[in-house]
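Hey, I was hoping to borrow your eyes for a little while. No rush at all, and the record is pasted right below.
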Amino acid sequence: MAVRPHRDDVRIAAAGLAGGVLLWAVGLFARPGGDNALVQWTPTWAPLAPLALMSACELFRRTHPNTATLIGTATLALDTVTRGSVVTILMYTDLVYAAVLYGTPAAARHIPRLSALLTVLGGTVPFAFWRAPETLLIGIAIGLVTLTPATTGALVRNHRAAAEAASLRAEQTALLAEFDRTQAVTAERTRMARELHDLVAGHLSAIAIHSTAALSIDDPDTSKQALTVIRQNSVEGLTEMRRLIGILRTPDDEVEPAPTLDALSSLIDGARANGLDVTLTTDPPGDVPAPVGLAAYRIVQESLTNALKHASPGPVTVALHRRHGTLLDLTVTSPYRTPTTPRAPGSGAGLAGMRERATLVGGTFDAGPRDGSWTVRAALPLTAILPHAEGDPA
């Protein structure tokens, strides 16, 4: 399929042809004739042929720049045996410029070098033969016709390439920024979902279980005890929700500190108030990095919530021990019950959230039935905390 000339190239060709014909009509030529017998021999209309052919080459200056320049070079040689036209020479300089600007990378490299070589040879060789200073003008003329437009085309091409590269880098930077923003939003949503689950699920599960007991057992004392637990968990859950909402509205330096291992005893007391028979054994906590302490606290919290909803009646043990001074081993065991309908509805995201917390601080996590008990195990590093370990948003 033939490529149509660019409309700007059509305008350039038409303007060049019209301008050349106008100069010919008023008798303005590039070479008046003088003593050149060959020029005197050619008819006065002869410059119109190279002019028309050069105008035709201008039609393809953008679509086929190398071919147009080769034909234009031959046309310029033909123009030298006529009285010539200044417009023909000007259109040839435009073809050289276009060949460097729109041509292949190889053409853009070689045409300026070849033009420079012709310029030097055009000035030195005639001077070496005739020893006349006027012969240096030949090199200057060749330089103006070839080297100047070729150099200009190379400069424009380099500026365009630099502008395109800068535009591409800007687009890539924008894409990376958008990707980072999307990743940050996704990570924040995941973190908030995990915090909401960990903070509220335990209290709501206790409320659901004890409200079921109050409704199903017709005993005033039992109902009173159940309502007491329900009220306690409602108040604590509301407090946690207010705290979480406050964090979203409060600057980071005013956020209430995250819970640590020192708060485990209060967590255990709350679980006992909800009806669990919980035993806590732990080594002296010592210096525990904040992300690790938070992860351990949340894993214990979620494990107790799961025991409240799923475990059979019986003792629940929570054990935290240091291993070789570099790891915090956490184990929570509860009586295993064949999977049935839980005592309270849940989202099913508890195990995934605990695993995420352990992974975020560079630790390991495992949970499953073992020797008649449901066992949750986590090994959290106390030394090399990963740079992306999260703090507590709640």
